[in-house]
Amino acid sequence: MKKKKIVSVVCFAMLLAMGCSNSQPTEQADISHSFYWGGTVCTGNYTGEMQGGKPWGKGTFHGYVMRDGQEQDKVSYTGKWKDGRLAGKGVFENLSRGVSYDGKFSNNAKNGEIVVKQDGSNTYEKVTFRKDIPYGISVLYDEKTDGIIGYDRYYKGIRVSEIIADARKFDYAELVYSAEEHYYEKIALDCQVEKKSIREITIDEEKEDSKEAETERIAELQVRDKSGNRYLIVYNIEYPRIAENYMPDVVVGEQIRAYAFTRGLSEIDEGALQEGQYPLLEGVTALREGCEFNFENPAYEYQNFLDFPYEYQGLKAQMSGTIKQMRFGSDGQIFLFVESRTYSEDESKNYLCVYEPSDKGDNQIVPIVGDKINVKGKFDTVYLKAEGDKLLMYPRILISNNSLEIKERTK
């Protein structure tokens, strides 16, 4: 009996020791090391924590980017490692090009929010990366004041401002009769919105008839140019892709300038008996005439929240309104659909307010439909709601802790 106990204790101790060795770096070393980086290889010297003979934990790398067997850019990285790869918080510097990336890394790639700084510049940029590709909104800051001085957005790794600058106008006949020749070129189109709708598409066409087929929603704008020629503009409205190709809340009959990529021809149903082929455009963004965002003094107006959701994201929101609908989330959040006139000149408009009740039972406020409330919080882009073939967009507000007040309880 005693022997069995001794064996059990020894086995448990060995397992505990093995578990610890698998979770904690056990060595400090100074070694030669190489890793993949952006389609190239970085090779040099690593100093820091190790595990299993590989960089693991905190450490610093100094070396070069290798191209065609030759040392090119001088680089360094200080931060977290896992299994010999960049993984966690750190700073990667390309010393030859004078640029640094401070933020989150995963599997030797920028993956998360990154602060990008160029030597000699009085600004820095915050942008989110996904597997080394800049994605979504980009915010430019003044280095001395940390104040916001500009915004941009990335679409498939390309700055939207660059797409706008490079876009050109096409003759309609070019897009119809030479569609393949002009495939995936940047286009600027002045047009009028004729129809707006949404539909669901299958992501993987090979699984189209399968129950496992993934789908996503896209929005479609049927538009006409000044000569009456028709086009079809499509864009994705699923999170997180909406961060790339955000189109404002345009309405039928409105004049816009759309920026897009040409995608050949598409069929538009013109009635029960006929279909027509028209230029198909992959929408990136659109601008209304006279519609712009003032970085220094943003206007707190309802339509601006829909036109520039990423520019207003994180700015303070404070309003009064009436709860029209409620929905409970699986994580304890309550979604309040609120009508308010605070930012719309006495005209009631819809908002989605996200509220997380306090876990202190006695002080917990649980609103109900019909309550008149005051809320404080921050703008958080937009909420999209499909009703039939219509796409509705509401400003989304995250209510701060203990910042929901019931002004008048419904009876």
What does this 3D model show about the protein?
The protein is mainly β and 411 residues long. 11% of the residues lie in helices and 56% in strands. The protein has helices spanning 2-23, 160-166, 172-177, 302-307, 309-312, and strands spanning 27-37, 40-51, 54-67, 70-82, 85-94, 99-106, 109-118, 123-130, 133-142, 148-155, 158-159, 186-202, 215-225, 230-236, 255-269, 275-288, 316-328, 334-340, 349-355, 372-387, 390-408. The model is unreliable at 1-21 (pLDDT under 50).
**Count of DSSP strands:** 21
How many structurally independent domains?
3
Structural class: mainly beta
Secondary-structure element order, N to C: HEEEEEEEEEEEHHEEEEEHHEEEEE
Q: What's the N-to-C terminus distance?
A: 72 Å
**3D shape:** globular
CATH class wording of the largest domain: Mainly Beta
Share in β-strands: over 45%
Which CATH architecture of the largest domain is right? Single Sheet
Task: Please summarize the sheet with the most strands.
Answer: 11 strands, antiparallel
Radius of gyration: 27 Å
Strand order of the largest sheet: 1-2-3-4-5-6-7-8-9-10-11
Number of helices: 5
Helix content: 10-25%
Task: Let me know the average pLDDT.
Answer: 86
CATH topology tier name of the largest domain: Histone H3 K4-specific methyltransferase SET7/9 N-terminal domain
